[in-house]
Design brief:
With 393 residues, the chain is α/β, with parallel strands linked by helices. It contains 13 helices and 14 strands. The strands form two sheets. Strands 3-4-5-2-6-7-1-8 form an eight-stranded mixed β-sheet, sandwiched between helices. It is globular.
């Protein structure tokens, strides 16, 4: 089953469903799976799942095993938290058998990882019938979730599903969860988003690709990889600062990319967000240290020397180069798009918001600033400036 919609309470709903199934079958085993382990641990394990237990099952106490990261209910049933970015841990846990697999924010997962995990949906736990549950903020219509649950075809070879009745999709939107959201969140925050983001986050719709866009999801998918190679020779973080951080403002684009010694490019991280200057400055510095980056490149049209001064205040050892947007966004982006056409840019995993901007931006129809896309373009452009010297003869 696929549940789609942003801020709709879908994670809470599915955690409740998971608990119902676990309590019905003593000794059964269930899993919540997400791309990043830290995300599933903090957002589900430390927040939504305990809240669901407290609100819907107040008499039930669950013991949390912190070292192994699973909940054990009084009847011996277990709910495990799995992040697919931790290969060793994921392999260890997925060596077990489960009666429920819940793929949280599955738009961030590649289909091959989902297929591998589904092989562990093999526990015999009467009276349960084994099930896989999925939720997402709907991405583009070329994503595997749309192909599988809406078009009812195999995402790989596009053949019709043998039994499409097994693949059920529900759309639940913020309006369905209005009583649990801040006052005016829907009316002012979501309703004022750009059209494509409004379709996705307010209406819960899968997105069409935009005619005239420089990128397509099919093109991005063709070069996508699960992890970067070990021979990365240079890592750059591109930053496109927002002027403000109010509810209606653009995000600050923060995208990390790398190049290997063959001249292949890798998009490693999208850390963008609607943040105050000092907050995004700290986020950039933390990402710089985490990845062992070589340089930060930042657009200074709106901030001038203040951007570099702020970053130097946070960490004086940061390597920073200021760049100015002297050409239009499309003109700057075209050389980078050409690299994608040659399958030389590889997204390490899935970046839904970034990829939505890339496939949704065209000079004829787009007015909103593509902050994440701009940060990506700055990062890869910086890598390409002297990238030819990394290509082996």
């Amino acid at each position: 089953m696929l549940f789609g919609g942003s801020r709709s309470g879908k994670t809470f709903l599915l955690c409740c469903a998971l608990l119902v199934r676990a309590l019905r079958a003593p000794g059964s085993r269930h899993a919540v799976i997400r791309r990043h382990f830290n995300s599933v641990k903090t957002s589900v394990g430390m927040d939504t799942l305990p809240k669901a237990l407290e609100c819907r099952f107040p008499g039930v106490k669950a013991d949390f095993n912190r070292s192994e990261c699973f909940f054990r209910l009084p009847n011996g049933a277990e709910i495990w938290l799995i992040g697919l970015d931790d290969d060793r841990r994921a392999e260890k846990i997925l060596g077990k058998e489960f009666s429920t697999l819940y793929f949280n924010e599955c738009s961030e997962l590649d289909y091959s990882s989902v297929q591998t995990a589904l092989t562990r949906l093999a526990q015999n736990a009467p009276p349960l019938r084994n099930k896989a549950l999925f939720d997402c903020n709907p991405p583009g219509k070329t994503h595997w979730t749309y192909r599988l649950f809406i078009e009812k075809v195999d995402p790989v070879d596009r053949t019709a599903l043998a039994d499409p009745r097994l693949y059920v999709a529900f759309r639940i939107n913020p309006a369905d969860n209005a009583e649990n959201l801040p006052e005016d969140y829907i009316k002012f925050t979501l309703a004022n988003l750009p059209a494509r983001q409004r379709e996705r986050f307010l209406e819960g719709r899968f997105l069409d690709e935009t005619p005239g866009a420089l990128w397509s999801i099919a093109e991005i998918d063709a070069a996508r990889v699960l992890r970067p190679p070990e021979d990365l020779v240079r890592i750059v973080i591109g930053v496109d600062p927002a002027v403000t951080c109010t509810s209606g403002s653009d995000s600050t684009g923060i995208v990390a990319a790398a190049v290997d010694d063959r001249g292949e490019y890798y998009v490693l991280r999208d850390a963008s967000g609607r943040l105050a200057p000092l907050d995004w400055g700290h986020r950039v510095a933390e990402l710089y240290r985490e990845l062992g980056a070589d340089r930060i490149v930042g657009e200074v049209n709106n901030g001038g020397d203040l951007i570099e001064a702020m970053l130097r205040q946070i960490d004086p050892d940061l390597s920073f180069r200021a760049v100015s947007a002297s050409r239009g966004k499309i003109v700057r982006a075209e050389p980078v798009a050409a690299l994608y056409e040659k399958n030389r840019v590889h997204h390490v995993g899935i970046f839904p918001e970034l990829e939505d901007q890339m496939t949704g931006f065209s000079p004829a129809t787009s007015a909103a600033s593509p902050d994440r896309m701009d940060a990506l373009v700055w990062a890869i452009t910086e890598l390409e400036r002297d990238g030819t010297r990394f290509v082996l003869a």
